[in-house]
Specification:
Number of strands: 4
Number of helices: 10
Largest sheet: 2 strands, antiparallel
Helix content: 55-70%
Distance between the termini: 25 Å
Structural class: mainly alpha
Shape: globular
Strand order of the largest sheet: 1-2
Strand content: under 5%
């Protein structure tokens, strides 16, 4: 899977260094194994899977002109899907850092993951832009409809709160997915650190990486391909 990350121009040495660190652990329990697709994976391997997945999504959907509806293709061409790739590589900082993470690092880790989740939701709405726009105009749901302009807000202008509320109202996610999304959003909001917010712990964050990969696969499986 590392080849997928290299193909996207990620930092090869960075990924190799942390992968080797996990593989050289004297005690197998130090690898903090999680299950991905039913198989045990170390946290860094999960990051590699995420990098490869977001690389493939960015490479395909940033060049949808010619077969996707014009408005959707235009939105996707302007979106910074390349930054989804870069943010995916950044997860290696938190998966490969000495554990447990400090509170500061854990806050930044959740912010990193929250941004990726937000990007996945925006990608989905951009791909289905015509359906989204028609639904927003019909329901005039305040989280996505701009009453001043009388038009739906483009997906790339929505914040995570508006996205999660719309996905809930439109019944686009399961109750389990919505619960997970709410947890990630709450943890991510700890970036506003002056006010106390719960941030969980390192184990919870590492488990959330696996859950994010499953979530991303679910989003991708619903996207139309020519």
């Amino acid at each position: 899977m590392l080849s997928g990350a290299i193909r996207c121009g990620t930092n090869q040495r960075l990924l190799y260094r942390w992968r080797d660190r996990q593989q050289s652990a004297s005690d197998p329990t130090e690898m903090n194994l999680f299950l991905v697709q039913g198989q045990p994976r170390a946290p860094l391997t999960v990051v590699e899977l995420i990098v490869a997945k977001n690389c493939d999504l960015a490479g395909f959907w940033s060049q949808a002109s010619g077969w996707a509806p014009p408005e959707a293709a235009d939105l996707l061409s302007k979106s910074r899907l390349d930054r989804q790739q870069s943010l995916s590589v950044s997860l290696a900082h938190w998966a490969g850092a000495p554990h447990p993470l400090s509170e500061g690092d854990l806050i930044l880790a959740w912010a990193n993951l929250g941004s990726l989740v937000e990007g996945a939701l925006k990608l989905f709405l951009c791909v289905f832009y015509e359906d989204y726009k028609a639904d927003a105009e019909k329901t005039k749901f305040h989280k996505v409809y701009d009453s001043k302009t009388g038009k739906p807000r483009d997906p790339d202008r929505l914040e995570l709160e508006g996205l999660s509320q719309y996905f809930k109202k439109a019944e686009l996610l399961t109750e389990e997915e919505l619960s997970w999304l709410a947890k990630v959003q709450a943890r991510r909001n700890a970036i506003h650190s002056f006010r106390h917010r719960e941030i969980g712990d390192t184990g919870e964050f590492l488990a959330a990486l696996v859950e994010y990969y499953d979530f991303l696969e679910g989003i991708e499986s619903r996207l139309p391909y020519p």
